Every structure is written in C-alpha cells, then in structure tokens.
C-alpha cells in the first residue's frame, strides 16, 4: 500500500531555526504592518507561504557550483553555462540574462509595447500587467471561462479561449497586438496549467496574423508535469521533453529563475528572432547590466544552470506537486472552499466563499490572510481585489471573479508536519470567522502594485482581527 504522502527525494543537510511567537506578539506585528502581510518582518513569521519566488532550498550541487562563479564583468564563463542550460532544456536560440523575472518583463515591454497596443493573455499577473500598462498597453483576459470558477474541475484551466482571442484580433486589428502573453502555469488562477494542444492552436492563430507568442516560463516545468499526468498522448514522455515542446510553441519567454529553477535570484529573457535579441541586449545594458550578466553575479548564474537541470528530474517535480496536493487534500477534507483542481505551486482558498458577508471593497482575502497570520504565524498571499488594483479609466477597484488567499509552498523547504500545522490553522480560522461581516479599509494606498506597500485598518471597531 502506498503511503498517504510520498517520502521526499532528498535528506536534510542543514537547518534554519524558525521563530515561534505568541498571539499578542503577532497582533502587535500585524498592527505595525498595517494589516498587510507583505509588510511583516520575516522574524515575525513562523511558516512563510507568501511566495515560492526565491524562497526555495538550493541543493548541495547548486551551492558547490556557486564556488566556481566567474565574476568577470564581460564574457563571464558562468553566463555561457547558463546560456547552454537554457538552450538544452528550453530550446530558445538567444538568451538575455536579467536580475529576475521582473527585469525580463521590463525589457520585453519596452521592446514591444507602444501606446495604444493591446496584449491578450490567459489571465493577468500583477507585475506583468503593470509593465504593460506603464508602456501604454492594455491587457485583455482571454482565458477560458472555467478558470474564473473556483469549483470547476477542468484539468487545463489555463487554456486560452480561442474564440475570445480571435474576436479580439478581429476587433482591434493584428497591428495593435504585439504579442500574446501565455502563462504556464497561470498564477492568478491558482497555478492552473495550459494544455499543449491549446498552446499549439494559440501559436498557429497568432502566427497567421503575424503576432508573437511570449511565454511566462516561471513554472513551465510544473505545467509540463500536469501535461504528462492529464493530457492524452503525453504520459510516456519525460517532463524535460514536454518542457521543450511547450517552448517550441512560442516565440520567446520571460523567466523568473526564482521559481522552477530553484534559485534565490535571477532570470532571463529568451527569443528566437535575432533582431529582437539585439534590441533586448541593448536594453539590458541600460536597465540591468552587461548582456553577459544582466544584473546577476556569476555565482547566481551557476546556481541557476544547475537548478535548471535539477528542476526537470521527475522525482523532484513529483515530490513538489505532491506536497502541495497533500495540503490541498487536508483542507478539502475539512470543507474549506478551494480553487479546484489544486495547482502546482499553491493551494488557493476561495476567500469570497469563506467570507461571503465581507464586502469586496473591504477585501475578504486580505482579511482572511491577516486572520490566518494572527492565529498561527502562517503568512499567505492575497490574490483578490487588492492585487487587482484600480481600473485606470474609472478609478474604481477592479473586482476579479477570484478572491483568493494563496498558500504558496517553497520547493524543498517545509515538511509534512509543517503542512499539517498550516492545514490545522486554516481550518480553525475558517470555523471561527465564517460569520465575519466586516473586513479592512485602506489607510495608505500606493498607485502601483499596491498590495506590496498598502496599509489597512479594521473597517469596524468590533472586528475580530
């Protein structure tokens, strides 16, 4: 009989003590942070599920590789090792390093987007849309409708609705659409994958109209695993082979190596067109650093090169997704409303369903995340109205259909016991706050990416948080 939770394919070689705190301490920390879990200090957090970006545990081989990092300003051999790894596992011809994924998004947007342009994509991501808008573009969500239904069990909720995309191209004209932005997996939908069949159709449709397809590749390895498990005809293929097939159906990619590549910092932009590559190199020198380091140290590039190879090992990606699935099962068995099916990097609780009485403009997800931290010291991430920001035309809060808190599991960091503690706390908070009628209101609201720096206060004096 197989175990309820498979054993991890690694053993612990070094430990980092975790801070334990009392409820009064956490309340004080939460108030000081303006009820924004983004502003909590790490020493006040017990289990940190805010993000899996740069928070992964690197392997002994990655740490060893860092010792041979070449810190030459120009032509560092560490860059060429990174470039070779991207060529081998992702298949793109031209690789431009950046300090992280956000740097790649900036270069891409400055290179391709002009005022009046429109960028379709399979659901927005916060920093991606911010860069698109700052360069004069407008984002359009062309994901399938099932992605906006948390309870729907569609196996590929990251798929693009081809009818929506074709209608947008017809209405706007292809000259106003520089590229289609395809995420694999889709973060804001809860880590949901796109199918290879759908991606192929997107690429063919875009190609007919002379439009590029650019991949957000941060979690493409996890997407490849879901294709292997769920898409007919791909079960016998390796994750590495499927990853190459994903990338083959795109014209370029922006990558945050802080996710799948198991590194603490770094990223890259890759394209097939040599002229675009030259434009990107010119911009990277201006905004990041020389085209052979792009804001990273040689040590970083060495760690990423090794991490790329480790990321596609079947046992590694399987253990990673199994751990997330285990947490999802614990919460589902207790009756918490979740995004289904559980995604690759996170379990997302439907805060709108968990706190139906809290008005959307009092931020149910932000409220639930604050309550979870207060209960146990677990930090989650808000992915709802606060993250969605304001409509630049009306000034009103955007109300996305998904109002979520994201329990994001870093790779190779926490044990099954940690997942059990998280589950116990989430269940307890759900039971205690099911009838909560008020949430939070802004005290300070930044204009851009407000969820990082905003400060809040309880909407009413009798709020339990």
UniProtKB/TrEMBL annotation:
GO molecular-function terms, A-Z: tyrosine phenol-lyase activity
Keywords: Lyase, Pyridoxal phosphate
Modified residues (N6-(pyridoxal phosphate)lysine): 259
Enzyme class: lyase
One Gene Ontology biological process: aromatic amino acid metabolic process
Required co-factors: pyridoxal 5'-phosphate
Keyword check for Lyase: yes
Its EC number(s): 4.1.99.2
Similarity comment: Belongs to the beta-eliminating lyase family.
Protein's name according to its UniProt entry: Tyrosine phenol-lyase
């Amino acid at each position: 009989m197989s175990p309820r939770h498979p054993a991890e394919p690694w053993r612990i070689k070094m430990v980092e003590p975790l801070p334990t705190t009392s409820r009064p301490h956490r309340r004080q920390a939460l108030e000081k942070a303006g009820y924004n879990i983004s502003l909590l200090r790490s020493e006040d957090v017990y289990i940190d599920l805010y993000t899996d970006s740069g928070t992964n545990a690197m392997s002994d081989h990655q740490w060893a590789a860092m010792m041979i990092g070449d810190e030459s300003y120009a032509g560092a051999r560490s860059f060429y090792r990174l470039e070779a790894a991207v060529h081998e596992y992702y298949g793109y011809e031209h690789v431009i390093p950046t300090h992280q994924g956000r740097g790649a998004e900036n270069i891409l947007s400055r290179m391709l987007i002009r005022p009046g342009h429109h960028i379709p994509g399979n659901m927005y991501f916060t920093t991606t849309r911010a860069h698109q808008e700052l360069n004069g573009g407008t984002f359009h969500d062309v994901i399938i409708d099932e992605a906006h239904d948390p309870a729907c069990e569609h196996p590929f909720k990251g798929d693009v609705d081809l009818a929506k995309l074709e209608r947008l191209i017809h209405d706007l004209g292809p000259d106003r659409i520089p590229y289609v932005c395809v995420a694999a997996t889709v973060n804001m939908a809860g880590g949901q994958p796109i199918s290879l069949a759908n991606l192929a159709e997107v690429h063919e449709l875009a190609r007919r109209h002379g439009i590029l397809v650019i991949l957000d590749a941060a979690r493409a390895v996890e997407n490849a695993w879901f294709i292997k498990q769920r898409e007919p005809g791909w079960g016998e293929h390796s994750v590495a082979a499927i990853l190459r097939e994903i990338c083959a159906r795109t014209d370029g990619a922006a990558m945050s190596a802080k996710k799948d590549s198991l590194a603490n910092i770094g990223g890259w932009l890759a394209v097939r067109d040599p002229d675009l590559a030259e434009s990107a190199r010119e911009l990277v020198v201006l905004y990041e650093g020389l085209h052979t380091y792009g804001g990273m140290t040689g040590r970083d590039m060495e760690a990423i090169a090794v991490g790329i190879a480790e990321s596609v090992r079947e046992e590694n990606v399987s253990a990673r997704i199994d751990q997330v699935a285990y947490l999802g099962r614990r919460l589902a068995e207790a009756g918490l409303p979740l995004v289904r099916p559980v995604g690759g990097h996170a379990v997302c609780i439907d805060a709108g369903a968990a706190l139906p009485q809290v008005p959307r403009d009092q931020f149910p997800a932000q409220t639930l995340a604050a309550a979870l931290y207060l209960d146990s010291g677990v930090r989650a991430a808000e992915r709802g109205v606060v993250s969605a920001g304001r409509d630049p035309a009306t000034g009103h809060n955007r109300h996305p259909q998904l109002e979520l808190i994201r329990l994001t599991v870093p790779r190779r960091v926490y044990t099954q016991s940690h997942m059990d503690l998280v589950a116990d706390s989430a269940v307890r908070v759900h039971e205690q706050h099911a009838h909560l009628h008020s949430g939070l209101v802004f005290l300070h609201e930044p204009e851009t990416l407000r969820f990082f720096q905003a400060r809040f206060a309880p909407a009413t004096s009798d709020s339990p948080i």
